[in-house]
Amino acid sequence: MTIKFSRWLAIVGGFVLPLAETIRRWSTWRESPANLFDDYVIGAFLLYGAWRVGKDPRNGQRYLAAAWAFACGMGYFSFFRQLERVQLHEADPAPISSESVLIIKGVMWGLAIVALALTLRRLPEASSKS
User: Fold this and answer.
1) End-to-end alpha-carbon separation of the chain, Å?
2) In angstroms, what CA-CA distances link 117 with 1, 42, 56, 66, 97?
3) Please, what is the angle between helix 57-87 and helix 3-24, to 10°?
4) Which of 116, 113, 108, 111 is nearest to 21 (CA)?
5) CA separation, residue 21 to residues 6, 49, 65, 128 (Å)
6) d(Cα 101, Cα 47) in Å, to the nearest integer?
């Protein structure tokens, strides 16, 4: 796996994450708009990083790494907050069970960690043509 996979995952995540969060919070977003907004920021950051890598992998690598690091940090809080909600038997606003949301968040957070690790790998040196 390479930075290309990380870029592809950023593009998918950049679109799916805001869409999924909109569906999840459709009926409750007015109560706490910030809970909806953070996923749009993550998505935009991932798309920007993917775009930069697409233009120039070596220069864009730092932007994609920063985007994945941000997603990992937000994912950490989101996963453990959801775990706490499950343990307290609090209902989630999603149209699925709180346990299912926890599993989805765990998988997404795991993928973000893998993508960050892939993005941080040293890129091969560009071949010089004399």
Assistant:
1) 30
2) 10, 17, 19, 11, 31
3) 40
4) 108
5) 21, 20, 23, 45
6) 23
CA 90 to CA 28: how far, in whole Å? Answer: 15
> Contact at 8 Å (CB) between 92 and 82?
yes
Residue type, 111: L
| Residue 73 and residue 37 in contact, taking contact as beta carbons nearer than 8 Å | no
Rounded-to-integer distance, Cα 14 and Cα 19, Å: 9
Q: What type of residue is 45?
A: F
* Cα three-residue angle 13-67-82, rounded to 5 degrees: 60
pLDDT tens digit sequence for 93-117: 888 899 999 999 999 999 999 999 9
Band of pLDDT at residue 56, cut at 50, 70 and 90:
very high
